[in-house]
What does this fold into?
Amino acid sequence: MAVTDEGISTEELQLAQRNSGMPLEALRWPLTPLGLHYLLIHYDIPQVDADAWRLEVGGRVERPMTLSLDDLKARERVDVAVTMECAGNGRAALEPRPVSQPWLNGAVGTAKWTGTPLEPLLREAGLAADALEVLFTGLDRGVEGGEPQAYERSLTLSEALDGEAILAWAINDTPLPPQHGFPLRLVVPGWYGMTNVKWLARITVLDAPFEGYQQMHGYRMRRSEDELGEPVTRMVPRALMLPPGVPDFMTRKRFVPAGPNRLEGRAWSGLGPITRVEVSADGGASWEDAELGEAPGPHAWRGWSFAWEAAPGEHELCCRATDAAGNAQPLEPPWNLGGYSNNAVQRIPVEVEA
It folds into this structure.
C-alpha cells in the first residue's frame, strides 16, 4: 500500500521514541531476542518494589486473596511460547493515517513466557454465582480521553477460564524487565497486546460488564467518533517476510543478486493455526505457495520459506497468510479510526542485480 506523507507530529514522535518495533531481520529467530521484541507503553513505567508488591484478587469471589511474587511462584508453573502483536500494527500504512503510535509492521514479537495459569487461581478464590467478567488493573496511570485512569482491561468469565491465560513473571528465562511489566503481567495467547496488562496489581471479578475507557472507547473498530464500534480482540492472520539482500539506508529498498534466493518469514493468527502462506514477486498479481515450517508452540508464529528464482529488474515481494478458520490477509484493508487490525499484505520493493 502506498503511503501518503502527511507529516509526523511532535506528539507522534514522542510516542515513537518511547515505543519500539521489532526489526524484521529478527524474524530469523523462532523466539525473539528480548531486546528486539516489540514494546508499547501507554503511560509511564512504574517503579515497583518486588518485596512490597502484592497481587490483590477480589470482587465477586468467596475468598479474596493477597499474593506475593513468591506465593505465585510456588503455584503451578508453565512455560508458553506466545506471539504478541500490537493492535495498531500497520496503522501508519492506512490512508488517511490515524494519529497515534506510527507503527509500520514491526509491532510484534514471540517470547517464552513463564508464569502460573490464571484459571486455577480464580477457581480457588471461589467465583460468585453472578460473576460475569474479570478485570485486570495495572500500576501504570495516566490521562487518556480526558479521563485520569489506571490501565485496565477485562475478559469475560469464559475467556478468563479457558485455561490459556497466564500470570507471567519471566520472559525468555529472564525476570520481567521494567518495560515488560515487572514484576507480573497478564499474558493471553491469541489476543492483541492491549489485553496483556502489564505491572499487574489487581484482579477483580465483576458482576457487570466493565465500562472503562480502554474497554469501551479505546481499542474498538469505529469509522467515526460517535460510533460505539466492535471491540478489538484476537489477532487476525498476518505473514511477514525477512527482507532479503541488503537495504538502502533511507528507503529500505532491498538489493538482491539474480538467481536462486531463499525467502523466509513467520506467520500467525489468533483465530486458528496457520495452514497456508503464499508469496508473490509481482506485487500480488500472481501467487505461489510457500513451504510451511515449524512453530515454537501452538500459540506462536509458524515459519515458512520459498525458493525464488530472481530475474534482474524491479520487483515487489509480498506474502500473505491463511489460517485454519479460513481467514486470509487482504490486499487492501478496511479503514478504521484507530488504525487497528490492519493486516494488509506486506510489500517489499526489491531491485535484482544481474
Q: What stands out?
A: The mean pLDDT is 95.
